Amino acid sequence: MADPEVNLTKNYDAVIIGSGAAGGMAAHVLTSHGLQVLLLEAGKKLPIEQELRSMEWPYDNAQRGALPPNSHSLSFNEYTIRNPPYGAGFEKAKKLYSYIGDTDYVKNIVVDERENPFSGTNYAWVRARCLGGKTNIWGRLALRLSDYDFKAKDRDGYGENWPISYSDIAPYYDKVDLYLGITGVKENLPYLPDSIFQRPTKLNCAELTLKQSLQKMGRVVTQYRAGVTSDGLKHNKYRSRCYGRGACERKGGCDIHAAFDSPTGLIYPAMDTGNLTLRTNSTVREITVDSNTGKASGVHFTDSQTMKDYHVKAKVVVVAASTLESARLLLLSKSHLYPNGIGNSSGHVGHNFCEHVMGPGVAGRAKDLVGKPPTLDDGRPGGFYLTRFRNLAEKHPKFIRGYGFEGGSGSTMFPRGADVHGFGASFKEEVRRNQGAYIGMGAFGEVLSRYENYVDLDPVVKDKWGVPALRFHYKFGENEHRMAEDMKETAQEMFEAAGFEIMHVSDRVLTEGWSIHELGTARMGNDPKISVLNQFEQSHDVKNLFVVDGSAFVNASCQNPTWTIMSLCWRSCDYLADELKKGNL
Amino acid sequence: MSANDPIDLKQDRRQWLKTSATVLGASLIPLPPATAEIAQADARRGKIAAQMGEAKVAGRFFTPAQHIMVEELSETIIPADSHSGGAKAAKVADYIDQVLRESADGSQRSLWLEGLRLIDVMSQHSHGKNFVDSSSEERIALLTVLSDHDHLTELPEVRFFKELKHLTVTGYYTSKIGIHDELEYKGNRVLQEYVGCDDQGPASK
Predict the structure, then answer these.
(1) Which position among A374, A407, B59, B97 has the lowest Cβ density within 10 Å, counted as fewest Cβ atoms?
(2) Number of structural domains, chain B?
(3) Is A339 exposed, middle or buried (0-12, 13-18, 19+ CB in 10 A)?
């Protein structure tokens, strides 16, 4: 049933599709400009605190925190041996989730793979159809990009430059820092600009050992730059400051909302302006076009529960459905004027798809911490970030671009060393004595943007709502594999330099998609022939159409995208509001 | 987790013993005639069942005899010591029963039933008695054979050992005893300040 409060006869100033980081930010910025905004979310509004239950002890949970019976989440092995659409071979599982949906706390946040199929090449596609999307469970690492990324082509000749420079986006990074809160320590690195940080968390002893030993190699370990408010936000009544409860390391979200999530950080405050109307359970299937003007006229959507179809009009359409879903929606929106999909005269929608490659990493033990009394190490939103060091001053002979490592150390609720060999009294004692001594890190590297890595619409496969599914044509290339080899080698070399006892070195490249950082399917650019959007994430073809999520990225950088998505979106929405007032849209 | 391929329950036991004896060393020989061995094992099972007033208990995966055996096996994996209780005190066997009852698939369940049986077969060969009747040194000696050969995953008893260890470890370290008594976990509570490393000096530069 339609929410009776949602007026679908009104011509909204803007309709936003998607309520994650980008959609939430668009709602915040546009409503603050006084625009009348309708926000459509395909999923439902979950009672999120009841889902996350971040302080529940495992022994108080029916399955010790694991998925309930008859549910299954895909493993690396299954992604490798099965082919999309995933489902065959899992007939006994009533619910089938992506790899991230493997706990009782995340299961209702991620989609059922069978209701949301896709085809083509293997892909660990993590989707969260609910209010706030993936921001409910994101990893919280909030990094800026720099001109090493925006002007990467100038440095190595590959790909395209962004149509913006760091100086264009820097004021918006500042706004996002101040509005949402971020913890970290200033490092003055040209390739990883500092944010306006709140009080940082501290490194623990093994992390400090790593930092100090890498200083000699000219490499930087810094506190995890977390999109978390450690000092609190006076302007936001929905979020608490972080008070280090632990166990933040557990996969899931922050139910005191110290970690940013789109509903409490952006959407609820936007609703308080009186300018935002929210409708959940609204699966947008098409952006409609006024055939006289060629402009977008609104959207068609299906109520996700009743399956009834609706149309709503808007002066501006803002697409923020996530990189791949946004591309899908543009491709779905075919008309006489736009036979290849709206905004796609370049043919680049769905192409230049890029992300981060991950998997290689290292785990070890700091021998001087073995047998020390237990410490609390996971009462904080993250451990450390080891910043990029490849292809900065020098050129690596085997690959272009770079990678960084995310890592952490110390005691966790479930001991890191419980997979060591053996059993019995010595095993038990070893796990206990070593529990605080573990340190590990894994790499995130830039996957090059390539035209030939793309998604299109499957001619046959449809989702539960009858909407054509995406078909993937996407594989990591030679540059990624060479980079992955280097990740493994440097990970080992750095742990050896720090004097850690190495327990495990991995060179396994995880399935495409694993980083949940898919980007680039409607890239920005100055040339409408090879890009979809201009520097304000505005369609080159359709002036009142904006795509404000990760699909606008020109390359992936190696730094996590969420903070950049929101900063770009803020900049674009300022421009949108201005243009609308001037009558230019 | 359990291996993906189902166990071949029809595998000839005598052949199994030969294979195992070859790869696991001398611990499983001498080899009795197959029929006699099977009859012995079946007789033992019948005897245990009769002793326990047996058959299935409603709402449980394991029979009472199997439950006792899983308790002893899990306690051998994580024993009580002067620091804290072990798997038995943490009721790991109840946890394993629940997993097998509610979440396991057919091949995982078969592996457990076959594994328990094979443990007793091994125990009879090595020590002339069932696992639960053997001394703690004998129990450790038996599981050491499997642990030392845990790469031989073509053997069902090795796959069973890995599964036993995995579920014991998961059950134990998610229990009250495992988290609070054994590891003395300090988190999941409100802190004034995250302490970090003592040597670090001021938190911010």
Answers:
(1) B59
(2) 1
(3) exposed
Instruction: With CB atoms and an 8 Å threshold, state whether A202 touches B186.
Output: no
Q: Cα–Cα distance between A501 and A367 in angstroms, integer?
A: 7
CA distance A276 to A263: 12
Q: How far apart are CA A543 and CA A358, in angstroms?
A: 37
Closest residue by Cα to residue A536 from A521, A525, A550, A527:
A525
Q: How many domains does chain A have?
A: 2
Per-residue pLDDT of chain B (205 residues; tens, 9 = 90+): 333 333 333 343 444 455 555 555 444 433 443 444 444 555 555 555 555 445 678 899 999 999 999 999 999 999 999 999 999 999 999 999 999 999 888 899 999 999 999 999 999 999 999 999 999 999 999 999 999 999 999 999 999 999 999 999 999 999 999 999 999 998 888 877 778 886 544 433 3
Q: Is B42 inside any structural domain?
A: yes
**Residues of B in Cβ contact (< 8 Å) with A435:** 183
Alpha-carbon gap, residue A307 to A174, rounded angstroms: 42
Q: Pick from B93, B107, B102, B79: which is nearest to B3 by CA? A: B107
What are the angstrom distances between the C-alpha of A526 and each of A162, A294, A345, A530, A537? 8, 21, 14, 9, 11
Cβ pairs bridging A and B (under 8 Å): 138
Token digits of residue A527 = 């040339």
Q: Which domain holds residue A32?
A: 1-51+70-177+260-343+455-473+519-585
- Express each pLDDT in A436-469 by its tens digit: 999 999 999 999 999 999 999 999 999 999 999 9
Co-location of A300 and A420 in the same domain: no
Instruction: Express each pLDDT in A126-181 by its tens digit.
Output: 999 999 999 999 999 999 999 999 999 999 999 999 999 999 999 999 999 999 99
A423: exposed, middle or buried (C-beta count within 10 Å: 0-12, 13-18, 19+)?
A: buried
The 10 Å Cβ neighbour count of residue A70 is 11
Structure-token pair, residue A371:
């047998």
Whether residues A195 and A233 share a domain: the answer is yes
Q: Å from A179 to nearest chain B CA? A: 21
B183 contacts A429? CB cut-off 8 A: no
Pair A158, A198 in one domain: no
Domain assignment present for residue A350? The answer is no
| Amino acid in the structure at residue A189 | L
User: For residue B49, what are its two tokens?
Assistant: 């069942």
CA distance A301 to chain B (A): 38
Structure confidence by residue, pLDDT tens digits, A269-309: 999 999 999 999 999 999 999 999 999 999 999 999 999 99
Distance between CA atoms of residues A76 and A98, nearest Å: 10
Q: Please report residues of B whose CB lies closer than 8 A to that of A433.
A: none
CA distance B182 to chain A (A): 7
Given an 8 Å threshold on Cβ–Cβ distance, is A244 in contact with B186?
Answer: no
Residue B72 near residue B66 (C-beta atoms within 8 A): no
Comparing C-alpha atoms, which of B97, B72, B96 is closest to residue B86? B72
**Sequence letter at residue A436:** G
Contacts of A426 (CB under 8 A, 6+ apart): none
What CA–CA distances, in Å, run from A275 to A17, A186, A268, A296? 16, 37, 11, 21
Contact A411 B187 (CB under 8 A): yes
A390 located within any domain: yes
CATH number at residue A382: 3.30.410
A186 contacts chain B (CB < 8 A): yes
The structure's pTM equals: 0.92
Query: Is B183 close to A411, i.e. CB distance below 8 A?
Result: yes
Say what the pLDDT of residue B195 is.
Answer: 80
Residue B55 counted as domain residue: yes
The tens digit of pLDDT for each residue in B21-74 reads 555 544 443 344 344 444 455 555 555 555 544 567 889 999 999 999 999 999
